[in-house]
Every structure is written in C-alpha cells, then in structure tokens.
C-alpha cells in the first residue's frame, strides 16, 4: 500500500510507512497531531514517548517522525477489507414535514426508547457489489415512505431500498469508478431534492457535487459544484444546500446554481476556538437554519445558529478511553429532532447517543455493546436518520449494512 493510501472506512485515516521497514505501514488518523507537534525519531528510528511509532510523514518533514498511535487506533481507523474473485486481504495496524425538499423531522417524545436489536433493511450480506450487498456505505437519506437511499461508497453507486425489499436498486452510478457523468467515485452522501425529484450526491473522489434526476431513463448526472472534496450534505426548507469538504475548516451554504457559496460555520482556519472548526465532516441543518457539525479533530459537535460568528459546543470528547455518557467520541452522523435533541453516532464507543438541549451528558439509545455484527452491535456507525414514525436508521459501515431500530 502506498504512502497516504486510504486504509480505513474512516476517510481521515491513511497509511503511514513505518521507518526502517520495507513495505510495512500502519493505518493512522492523520489529524491526531499537527505537523508542528511531531518530533523526530532517534537515529535508530525509535520513539520513547508511549503510544508513538516512528513513521515517514513527508507532508510534515522529510525525516522520520514519532506519530501517535493510541491503543484505540483500531476503533478510530476501522480497517478496510477488500475482496476480489480469488483473494481476500485486510489492511492491518407525530411528524413535521419541512417545506419542499427537506427531511421529514419526527416529533420524538422526550422519553422515547428504541428496540435494542436492529433489523437489517439494506445490505447485510457481506462486502460486495451484488444488489443485496453494500461496500463501506457512508451517508443515507430516508424518504417519506421509508425508502432508504444510501451512498454505497466503495461500489461507486447510490442504492435505493424500499421497505421489505431483499435487493436494492442502483439509482445513480454503478458503472465503475470514474469521472464520466454516468459514473461516481467514492460517493459519501446523498439527499433528495423533492422539488426537482432528483438526488444530490457528494461525489467525493471526483471532487464534485452532482445531481441525478430520479425520472425513469436517467443515465447520467450533472455537476452542481466542482473542485470540492465533498464529505457531507444537508438541505434546508428554502432549498439551500450545505456542504462540508474534507480538510476545509468550514461549512458552506449554496443556493442551487451558485458555485461559490457562503461560509455559515467556521471559516477562520483550523483550530479549537469557538469560531473555528478542524476537519468538519457530518452536517445537519434544522428548520431554523441552525447548523450542527461533527468537528472531528476537535472531538466535538458544534451548533452554529443562523448568522452566528461563533458556535456552541453541544457535545464533546475529553477522553477517548472513557465510555461514560459524558463522552461523545469520534462523532459521525447527526440528526436533530423538533425538540432540539441531538442524535449522534459515537464511532469510537460504537453506539448512538442522544443529547437534550443544554445537557452535560447524553443517553445511549442503541449500541454500546462492543464491536460486532450482532443485531445490537456496530462496527463503525456513520450516517443516521429517522423516518416519520421515529424509527432510527443507522449506517453500520464496516458491517456493510443499514440497521433500523423501531421506536417503542
């Protein structure tokens, strides 16, 4: 595997070659340390600080450096398993409907509980490209009729599963990885613009956001925004599109047809200040145009009210080894209900949590039973959403499935 190749379902992780070794690397979360914080290895390629490994990191400096590799590295960087026809190899180390296009946002009771064992509603038949399979799915969108749209990232396609279907339907891409307009390359998110009856897709590795009509006979998309390493999408009631991009510390709002956009969160460089973000990924926008964002490298979820110059910390992680309900670590997918309760995926502790407004700690609503493929477990949960009844849908990325947890 080449230096900086993607090695994990977590797009923030990459392969770092171990100094002094031949063709040996470790899958690490690149933003665990800034370049200025890294120190050189000793002349024998040894690091004396605990949980550090001597690696090549030429983006920072030419000499080998000591890079943090914490004991929870496997949870932070779940490894990709790539399969072909002959071999399998694993890299190691009541509801409110928003006007027009947006989500159905359920009125979830404050004391709601969900079944602890999920039902697989998409995928779950292993890592593959058959129509009953997914390969490292990322974002999802749940339509009014409980149809689930999934960014099937490593199959370079968008899949649609209607309730009860055993097999999904390819509704965009599926023509191999590529940059043609009938192709996608590692899509990371999808939503429905109901006014135009079209899909809007983060076509991440093609550096673009594209739109595909849902009308029968559509064979290709059109580019809405280009030159953007798109991570995640949201759309508000006014049909403004919100986009996060990998490595860009801001959230931008776009009027459809606008190529430039307006910064609505962050935009003040990488950092931990309340006016800053550091590697934002998942984003959610409520009916008041308040923006919620997973601020990954700051280990927090931020709320930026409409027009605000600074954000508010809604939930955060101070200790990745601590699974107390005060900790939300490795936050990925987000959702906010009509009461303002935040629902977030904690990818480190493999659980979904809820945080009421102003709370100092959250509640585990599903998961938290260790990594695994059981119906009450996840391996790297990412996107999440709800249907009009309040049932919870979770992308269980490294189990290559989507799980539904029924509200009780």
UniProtKB/TrEMBL annotation:
Keywords: Repeat. Pfam families: NHL. InterPro entries: 6-blade_b-propeller_TolB-like, NHL_repeat, TRIM-NHL_E3_ligases. NHL repeats lie at residues 128-164, 271-307, 372-408. One of its GO terms (molecular function) is zinc ion binding. PANTHER family: E3 UBIQUITIN-PROTEIN LIGASE NHLRC1-RELATED (PTHR24104), PROTEIN LIN-41 (PTHR24104:SF25). This is NHL repeat containing protein.
């Amino acid at each position: 595997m080449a230096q900086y190749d993607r090695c994990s379902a977590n797009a923030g992780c990459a392969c770092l070659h171990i100094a002094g070794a031949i063709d040996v690397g470790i899958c690490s979360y690149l933003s665990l340390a800034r370049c200025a914080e890294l120190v050189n290895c000793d002349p024998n390629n040894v690091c004396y600080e605990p949980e550090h490994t001597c690696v090549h990191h030429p983006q920072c400096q030419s000499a080998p450096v000591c890079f943090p590799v914490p004991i929870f590295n496997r949870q932070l960087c779940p490894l990709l398993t790539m399969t072909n026809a002959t071999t399998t190899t694993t890299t190691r180390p009541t509801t409110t409907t928003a006007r027009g296009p947006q989500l159905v946002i359920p009125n979830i009771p404050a004391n709601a509980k969900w079944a602890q064992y999920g039902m697989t509603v998409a995928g779950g038949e292993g890592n593959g490209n058959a129509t009953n399979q997914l390969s490292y799915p990322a974002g999802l969108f749940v339509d009014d009729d409980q149809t689930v749209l999934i960014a099937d990232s490593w199959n370079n396609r968008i899949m649609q599963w209607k309730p009860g279907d055993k097999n999904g339907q390819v509704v965009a891409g599926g023509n191999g990885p590529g940059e043609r307009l009938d192709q996608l390359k590692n899509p990371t998110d999808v939503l429905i613009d109901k006014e135009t009856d079209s899909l809007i897709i983060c076509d991440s590795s093609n550096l673009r956001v594209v739109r595909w009509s849902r009308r029968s006979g559509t064979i290709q998309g059109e580019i809405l925004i280009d030159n953007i390493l798109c991570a995640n999408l949201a759309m508000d009631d006014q049909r403004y599109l919100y986009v996060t991009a990998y490595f860009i510390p801001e959230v931008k709002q776009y009027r459809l047809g606008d190529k430039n956009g307006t910064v609505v969160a962050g935009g003040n460089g990488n950092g931990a200040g309340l006016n800053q973000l550091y590697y934002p990924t998942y984003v959610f926008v409520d009916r008041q145009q308040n923006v919620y964002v997973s601020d990954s490298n700051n280990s927090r979820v931020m709320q930026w009210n409409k027009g605000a110059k600074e954000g508010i910390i809604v939930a955060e992680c101070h200790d990745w080894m601590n699974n107390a309900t005060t900790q939300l670590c490795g936050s990925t997918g987000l959702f906010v209900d009509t009461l303002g309760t935040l629902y977030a995926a904690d990818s480190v502790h493999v659980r979904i949590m809820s945080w009421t407004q102003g709370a100092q700690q959250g509640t585990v609503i599903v998961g938290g039973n260790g990594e695994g493929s059981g119906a009450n477990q996840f391996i790297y949960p990412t996107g999440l959403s709800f249907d009009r009844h309040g049932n919870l849908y979770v992308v269980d990325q490294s189990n290559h499935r989507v799980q539904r947890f029924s509200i009780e």
